[in-house]
Amino acid sequence: MVKNSLGIYIHVPFCASKCPYCDFYSLTDRTFVRDYVSAVCRELKFWSKKIDKPVDTIYFGGGTPSILSSENIIRILDSIRNNFKILDPEITMEINPADTEFLDFEKLKNFGLNRVSLGAQSVNGSQLRILGRRHGVDDIKKSINLTKSCGIENISLDIILGVPEQKNKDIEDFVNFCIYNGVPHISAYILKIEKSTPYYFNKTGLKFWGDDKIADFYDYTCELLRDSGYIHYEISNFSKDGFESKHNLKYWFLDDYLGIGPSAHSFVGGKRFYYPRDLKKFINKALIKYEKTDPEKEFVMLGLRTKYGISDERFKEKFGYNFPKIYYERAKKF
Ligand code: SF4
Q1: Which ligand 1 atom sits closest to the C-alpha of 15?
Q2: Going by CA atoms, what residue is nearest to atom 2 of ligand 1?
Q3: What integer pLDDT is reported at residue 195 of this predicted model?
């Protein structure tokens, strides 16, 4: 990664349907897609006048970026290229395996897409249904094949740990599936029951696992992936050598990133700010809100999420002074 560069995150606030465990900001009504895309381009132009840094990572997340047409994605990419200096960027798009065949991968690749993050979540059909996902296991396979047939090898698959009825065998099947299909990156997220989601009210009587069992699933996953040659480079992320997510590393290294879209967060020049969770406000040029931040402490906390930890050199490079001794004192008791 280039020093003093910028990552750009585009939050796409649309989904074809809502999964019962999810509290990300997204709407199933797609009436305002065109207005949303115009607002994203407007905001990119606005921020390009304030931030003078070259862009080396771009990430389309959501929501479901793959339900935007390829033309809309390209319109946004064009806007980034027209407004910012670009440095051979990693460009990632989150894709729902149910949508792959509607995307023009050749075109997207020609416009720079070089990394795909598939929201697979499981390779057990019954668990995909419990999770309310739109795709089946065949869709995941098809998505990988289609992505690879266009020459995009940098593929990540998500798995959710702690799904009702999940067994160690399901995790093993998932890891074997990734190995068999040559998937170089895996994100393993623990199911969290978020307030106000259908899972929270649990009207269907699902049996959720307790913390200890979920911790066992997590340990099992880490062990299995390590034994299969994946590097555990962040709490929830594993990759083959050289396939770490450059964009996500910016979050953990406290590097600058600009988030565009309703609910998107940014960290630029030591300041944290975000857009409200409201599509209409975003379209009508909502004011961003600033958050309190303590970059020094965040640097320590985020660094400890990764296998790289924290180093005196990186600290000094970022803050211009030596790593304060107080942190060594505090660490001693652990
Ligand atoms: S597709 Fe993703 S963002 Fe949309 S509701 Fe499901 S989990 Fe949430």
Answers
A1: 4
A2: 63
A3: 93
